[in-house]
Amino acid sequence: MSLSLVTLFLLSIMVFLGGQVLPGNVGRAILGPFADQRAVDALNHTLGVDRPLLTQYWGWISNFVQGDMGTSYIFRSPVAPFVIDALGNSMKLAAVAFVLVVPIGILGGVVAALNLNRPLDRIISLGGLSVTVLPEFVTGIILILIFGVWLRWLPISAAWPRNAGFFTQLYYLILPSLPLFLVLFGYIARMARSGMIEALDSDYTRTAVLKGLPWRTVIWRHVLRNALLPTITVIATQTGYLIGGLVVIETLFRYQGIGSLIFTAARGKDFPMLESGILTIGIVYAVATLIADFLYSMLNPRIRLESDQ
Amino acid sequence: MSAVQSTSPVPDDTRRRGPLAEVFYSLLRSRTFLVGLAIVLFWVACALFGEHFAPYDPLADDIINALAPPSSEHWFGTDQIGRDVFSRVIVGSRDILTVAPLATLLATVAGTALGLITGYFRGLVDDVVSRILEAFMAIPVVIVALLAIVALGTSKTTVIVVIGLSFAPIIARTVRSAVLAERELDYVAAAQLRHESALHTMFVEILPNVIPPILVETTVRLGYAIFAVATLSFMGFGIQPPSPDWGLSISNNYGMIGGGFWWTVLFDALAIASLVIGVNLAADGVHGALND
What we know:
The complex is a heterodimer of chains A (about 300) and B (about 290). Helix content of chain A is about 80%, strand content about 0%. With about 300 residues, chain A is an all-alpha fold. In chain A, α7 crosses α8. Chain B has a single domain, classed as MetI-like fold (Orthogonal Bundle), CATH 1.10.3720.10. Chain B has helices at about 1-5, 20-30, 30-55, 85-90, 95-120, 125-135, 140-150, 155-180, 185-195, 200-205, 210-235, 245-255, 265-290. The two termini of chain B are about 20 Å apart. Chain B is about 70% helix and about 0% strand. In chain B, α3 crosses α5 (about 95-120). Chain B is built from 13 helices and no strands. The chains are: A mainly alpha (about 300), B mainly alpha (about 290). Chain B: It holds the Pfam family OppC_N. Chain B: It is found in: Cell membrane.
């Protein structure tokens, strides 16, 4: 908990410094090289970027906490609605990827562990490892070529038509979520596999087998429960990665999410937009970490009982 | 290391190999390592001598033959201004194979220094530095890079520094835990009793003994560095035109993918994939050889 707060603080400082050390000045960047110096100064004053750094940081962060994310340099309108819209879109994409990858990844790891060192294990482990190390845009391009260009099964852009219903949106989100799926699959399957191997090798599993419990009961009631705890932590730590991946995937698929919002803002040097976007995902990350800690302690009786006493 | 071995009191007739030679031999026996190494060396050769055996100038345009599909003349087809894709893929390995290893080197040097300091001194220094590093590790590299590059402008140096500094905490964590185990050993106590300076103890006494984990972490990081450089180039924040870099080429051409011009992106994507997998196979081999 405290760690994610430190991360958040560090991130806010970096974001802020990144915005301030920008070569040239904001007014000049907006008005262009031929604008009158007085106009530039006036704009800088209106935007408040001529104040001392500490004042600016405090003003920015206290406004942000109150939900005022500032005004976009490019759209000349409040940033907050853009960020909220984009965040919603990104959540949809991330949700599709997660809903696909968590059960399939766990299943893959469990199946691999139950077939330890047999061909099926080799295929899952090696395959998972190979796709995990590839950049998302590389797998993305290859998937677009296969499913979008050659087979024509799926749309190559994630921008669905206006007023599209739930299932249409889902249809458009399958292809973009696949590269994220592939990267996460390797991690989750690997953790589930090693957790399973450890649990299968434990004394309580041997006891359960020796006292004559059916194999099915041993797996479901004794092995899986213990094996999947570390996997939950891994899934939560992957939210940080997922956010980085979203920037790439949303750009590749032209999807109006928070990743492409940050990317576009960075290219256009739209600092309020960029800063708010990054800080927002920082908060999402902190919340995800918190939920993971909570889930972990809920599922782990040792921690749960300790805190009860 | 071998010089040290020959002056050691081990009798010559036992013909014992030094620890490094041992690692070297088990690397040569590792199929994973050899396959990975072969792929990496292939791309290194392309980076060094590519222009000599590439059939065309990778930067020469030929508008009349733009977007030609693969043929006997242009094995991988041509891109939107008629440049030969095959030649570009071969020469395109150069920039990524310069930037990624330099970033990894920076990460290794900075991370090793940080890990030695936090592991050796422990206490307050360790607590403060480790907390900051942990917090820093939680931030995705793409985000750090985006910020730094917007603030500092795009250049190879910026990319190297951003990736190097983003990876340094991860190496520092590995080195720190290795140092924590080492510092309890007698030779460290002996050095301290001789009143060696902390710097001497850290870098001359402890460092040589924590090389194996550093080596493993460095090879693994190299894979991630290639991942990061390729991604940044694709985003337009990495290697800049007119370089025939793979990520950059994909970013320039993927807009036309819907038109069926698959050859303008597929070969670059496969090149990145093969290099990343090659480095990871080699890293896996190094890991196996050092942990046997």
